[in-house]
């Protein structure tokens, strides 16, 4: 089975063999993504200075050298890295985005950011409900958008 960037991170933490990268197949070497490796290791706050040091030389280190650096700089052990996931984009009704865009004279992309902020708190939802009613939106439509 092909290796993933996470299995490479695991090898850095637990294996730390100097010849690990040399024993990888060509397919496995392609899965060694310095960006993902750096991001994964940086999820452990204690290793931020190590990742920062590696990033200073990102244009000079090849993948093998990066593996060797991390395997020697990071103490061997089991580490849990909680992967920070991106925020899922909420799909708002087009009429609601248009309404907020007109109200605050912003682009539709900015209006979606405003809607994200409004929906985070009860006070924000109340304010959004008030804005919608000011534009003549009835309660039936407000229930569709969970206001």
% residues in beta strands: under 5%
Q: What's the count of strands?
A: 0
Shape: elongated
Q: N-to-C SSE series?
A: HHHHHHHHH
Largest sheet: none
Low-pLDDT segments, ≥5 res: none
What share of residues is helical? 55-70%
Structural class estimated from helices and strands: mainly alpha
Q: Count every helix, treating DSSP H or I runs of 4 or more residues as helices.
A: 9
Radius of gyration: 24 Å
What value does the average pLDDT take?
A: 90
| Assembly status | single chain
Account of the 3D structure:
This protein is mainly α. The protein has helices at residues 5-15, 26-30, 34-42, 48-56, 63-73, 94-104, 108-120, 122-134, 139-144. Helix 3 packs antiparallel against helix 4 and helix 6 packs across helix 7. The longest helix is centred in the last third of the chain and has 13 residues, at 108-120. The radius of gyration is 24 Å and the shape is elongated. The mean pLDDT is 90.
Structural descriptors:
single chain; 147 residues; mainly alpha; 2 domains; 9 helices
Please render the helix and strand layout as text.
Blueprint: H1 5-15, H2 26-30, H3 34-42, H4 48-56, H5 63-73, H6 94-104, H7 108-120, H8 122-134, H9 139-144
Quick structural overview:
The chain is mainly alpha-helical and 147 residues long.
């Amino acid at each position: 089975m092909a290796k993933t960037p996470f299995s490479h991170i695991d090898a850095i933490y637990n294996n730390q063999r100097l010849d690990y990268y040399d024993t990888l197949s060509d397919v496995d070497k392609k899965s060694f993504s310095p960006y993902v490796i750096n991001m994964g290791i940086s999820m452990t706050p204690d290793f931020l200075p190590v990742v920062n040091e590696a990033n200073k030389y990102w244009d000079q280190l090849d993948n093998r050298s990066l593996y060797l650096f991390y395997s020697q700089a990071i103490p061997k052990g089991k580490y849990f890295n909680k992967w920070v996931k991106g925020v899922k984009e909420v799909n708002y009704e087009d009429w609601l985005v248009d309404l907020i865009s007109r109200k605050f004279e912003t682009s539709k992309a900015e209006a979606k950011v405003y809607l994200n902020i409004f929906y985070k708190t009860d006070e924000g939802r109340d304010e959004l409900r008030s804005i919608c009613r000011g534009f003549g939106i009835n309660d039936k439509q407000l229930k569709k958008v969970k206001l």
